[in-house]
Known about the structure:
Radius of gyration: 34 Å
Largest sheet: 11 strands, mixed
Number of strands: 37
Shape: globular
Low-confidence stretches: 1-29
Mean pLDDT: 93
Distance between the termini: 107 Å
Number of helices: 13
Oligomer: single chain
Strand content: 25-35%
Amino acid sequence: MKKSFTSISRCVAVPFWLVALLLLLGNVAQAEIRLPHVFGSHMVLQREKPLIIWGWATPGETVTVQLGSVTQTTTATASGEWKVTLAAMDAGGPYTLTVSGSSTVKFDDVMIGEVWLCSGQSNMEFGLGNVDNAKAEIATAYHPGLRLLMVENRWTPEPQTDMNGMWKVCTPETVAEGGWNGFSAVGYFFGRELNEKLGVTVGLIDADWGGTRIESWTPPAGFAAVPALKDEYERVQLSDPQTALHQQRLAQTLDQFNDWVQSARAAMTAKQVVPPPPSYPDELRAPHDLQQATALYNGMIYPLQPFPIRGAIWYQGEANESEGMRYAERMKALLAGWRTVWGEGDFPFYFVQIAPFNYGDSPEKLAELWEAQTIAANTIPNAGMAVVNDIGNLRDIHPKNKSDVGHRLALLALKNTYAQKDLVARGPTFKSLVIEGDTLRIKFDNVGGGLASRDGQPLNWFEIIDANEGGFVKASARIDGDSVILSASDVKHPVALRFAWSDLAEPNLMNAEKLPAGAFRAGNVPKRDWLSMNVPEAKNFQTVYDLDLTKLGSTINYDVDNHSSIQKPFDRVAYFIELQDASMNTQDMYVSMDAFSTNLSQIGVPTVNSGAHFQQNVAHLNVYSNVKGIVTGTGLKGGNLEFWPNNYGQQNSANVPNASNNAFDFGDQPDALSDGYGSMQVHNHDARQTLFAINHWREGVHADIGIGNQTQGNPDWTFAANAGNYHIMRLRVLVHCP
Length: 738
C-alpha cells in the first residue's frame, strides 16, 4: 500500500484527504458478507419449517445463499440488511451453508433437526458440572447428534442484532465449557433424550441468567397482550423513544426545562437565587438495570429471532416467588411476546414448577406461585408443566437432580409435540371434589397406571377445613381407584381442601409412572366473621376503625375510618383482633372496657399524630377469646392500658400490681422519646396476662403482634418481630353509644 500511494502521489498532485476518502470508499465497497452468531458450523436448523437466513452486506449488494442443492438470491437493503427464506426441509445432513457476494461465508456440518430454546434463571443456568454424578455424566457426554449454542449473558437498553456464541458438537469437553460450570444441565438432559427417542439431531440454545425476573425476558409485545399488565406496558412504552407516549412525555419535559432556563436567566439578571432545575423523569430512561422489563430480552433473546425453533423450555420463578397469581399473567406475557416476535404461531412451551425450598417467610407464598404456574399451564395454549416437588432440596434452592427435570420436560415434548400418545407425561392432577358426609372424595386425572405413595407411607400434605369452625387441619388420606378419600376426626362438615400448600411440602402422592402430584386447592373455604359469631355484645357497638395489620408501617392508614362521622357520646370502647396463620388457624381476642377517652382520634393506634398516651387502669373488662389460657368473662377487674408512641423500659414506675421490673410486661415505663418504638397493649394485671399487643408498628412485617402472654421472651411481645408469621391480621376498634 505504501508503494502504491507513493507512485500515485508522484504522478498526480492528489490531496491526502482525497486519497484517504477513496481508500475508505474502497473498503466499503469490499465490505464482507456477515451473518449473526446464531448461525455457524455444526448448527442445527429446524426441520419442517421455512428456514430464515439473514445478515448484512454492502447496501445494494447481491447475496446468494446456498444450503445443500437449494439456492436463493436477494439484494441487501439501503441499510445493508438482507434476508432469504428457504423451503422447509426434512431432517438430515450434514450440509454446507454458503453465503456469497463480494465475499463468501461458509458453514460446514449443518444439520436439519429439532431446535429448542432453553431459558430462565439459575436452575436452568445450572451447569452439567454441578449435578449429581457430574464427572460420570460429563465423561459420557459424547453425542454427535446433540449441538449446543450458549448465549453470552448480556442485558442491554435497546434490542441487539447479534450476540456472542458459537455452535458446538456435544462432547465431554464442550458440554463442560462456559456458563455456570458448563452447559445447562436441564437443557442437556432434555435434548439428549429427544435425540435418543426421535433419532434426529437436536440443537439447544442456552440463554439464561441466574437470579433474574421474568419481566426482564419479556418483549414489549408480551406486555401489550396481557390487560392485567397494562401498567407495566405503559412503563415499557415510556422508556422506548420510538413510541408516541415517550415523545409526548419528553416534549412536556423539554418544555419544563425551557421554562426553567428562562426563569434561571431572569434570576441571574436580577442577581437572585436560581431555582433548582427539573429532574429528568426516570420513566423516560431506557432499561438501565438487569431486572427491568425487556432488558434481557433485548440482549439475549432479540438477537436469536427469527431463527426457526420448535419450541422453548423454561425454568424460572424463584425471583418472582412472592407475586402469587400475578405470575400467571407474567407467564402469559412472556409467551405471547416470544410467539409474536418469532412469528411461528403457538410453538410449544414447557416449563418447570419451581421446587420446594425454605424461603423463610410466609410458607403459603410459594404455594400461591405454584397455583399461578398451574393456571398458566392450563390456560396458555400448547404449554405444559413438569412438577418436581419430589426431587427438590429444602436447604438448597438449586437441587442437583437435574436429570429427572430434563426427563420430565422431555416427556411433555414427546407426548404433546411429537405425538407419542401412549406416554404418561404428567403426574396426578386435580379433577373434581365431592363431599360425601364427613369425608371428601378427590378425583384425579393423569393417574397413569394408578395412584400410589412414593415412599409406601400414608399420603401426606392433605388438609381439610370444616364448614363451621377451625382452620385447615391435617387429613387422613387413602387411595380409592382414581380418587383419594380425605377425613379428619375434628372435621364433621368438610367443605374444602388444600394439598402441598407450603414451601416445605414434599408430598408423596404420585402415579405408577413415578410422576408426582403438584400443589392445588379446591372447595369453598368458609368466610367467617369471628366477631359476630363469638361476641354477642358486638351487635350493639359501632366500628370506628378497621385496620389490616399486614399494612402496618410508619404511617397508619385505616381501611375503615368512621371517627369523624360518629357524633354521639360513647361509654364503652372495644378492641377485636384476629390473627390467622398459614393453615388458617385463627386466634381472636375481644376486649371491651369503660371509655378511657372522649376523643375518638385517640382510641386507635397511638401514633404521635393521634396524640394518644395512656398508662392507666380501665374498668369492667369483658373478654372473649379462643386462645387457650386467656381469662375470659364479663365485668373483670385488673384492666390496664399501655398506649403510647414512645420508647419504653422495664421499670414498673407506675406500680402496676403484679408487674415486673425485670421484663417487658404490663408495667413498663415510657421514656421521653415520643416518636419511638411504640406500644398498644391491653392487659389484665390481676390475671398477670397481656390480652393483646401491637408494638413497633413502623416495622411492618417485623412488628410485634400477639394475643395472650408470649411463652418465650417478653410476655407483652416486645422484640418479638413476629408479624410476618401471620397470613391475616386484622384490628377493629369499636364504641358503644348509649
